[in-house]
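INTERNAL AUDIT FORM
Audit reference: QA-55
Scope: verify that the stored structure record matches its stored sequence.
Auditor: D.O.
Record contents follow.
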Amino acid sequence: IMSPVAKFQDDKYTKNRALTSVDWHPKHKELVLGSYFARTGDNVSPEAEGLILVWSIATQHRPEYVFTCQSGVTCAIFDPYS
């Protein structure tokens, strides 16, 4: 049986968006990123249809970093060499 360890959500950024990928940082195990795509027909800013949010286990109620993209983001990963 699996149980949730953490819930990363901030409606300011994640509301009406589909989570498209998740990646844990290879060196900094407390960091996780999620990529997001605006759902079809939802009213989002055209300059921020896609998002990448970097979350920390310590602050699950807000992202540590926010990266916006003009188009939806389908996949994102941390650079394993940095």
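Auditor finding: record pair retrieved intact. The first helix runs from residue 11 to 14.
Action required: none
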